[in-house]
Fold this protein.
Amino acid sequence: MNFCIYSGTFNPIHNAHIGVALGVLKHTDTEKIIFIPSKIPPHKNEEIIPPNHRLNMVKLAAEDYPDFEVSDLELTLPGKSYSYNTVMKIKKLFKINDKINFIIGTDAFEKLDSWFHAQDLADEVRFIVVPRCQNFNLELSRKKIKLSNISYTSVELPFIDISSTEIRYNLKHNLPVNNLIPEKVFNYIKDNNLYS
């Protein structure tokens, strides 16, 4: 089965995350999306709720989609969540020798050189680059990256201007989040008094 890793903080998961996953399924040869919430993301400085809550919210968001799967792999690994370590664990677990699909936003793609074992990661995956801003020029960004042997493709999806930062702000200030997060996720947040 040809599947794709979708790793992220998911703090919280929102409708743009779901839209990206559905778009990748529709426009690539991917048959299954594996959501992997990060335990301690190395590039994030914002306040992050405990990983068990983020995992539960991703599970709730994914349960209506048969081609979505959720893994707690990064939550079981010690230390920070590095994509290279995650990819190598997944490849070993599923006995995969070929490159594995890996969803990455345009903003992260431009900073790929700074990632842990960036070249080793690039050797193991095919990046599926999705828009995180409007008017992104993939080829121009690729020229800025010093890594060699990068396998990548872009998925032309409509840019959905939703951010977890905005959602957390709205929740904290009792502003509406309808159409930003799945209803099940909203109910979980309220039931567990998160982001208040």
Notes: The chain has a mean pLDDT of 90.
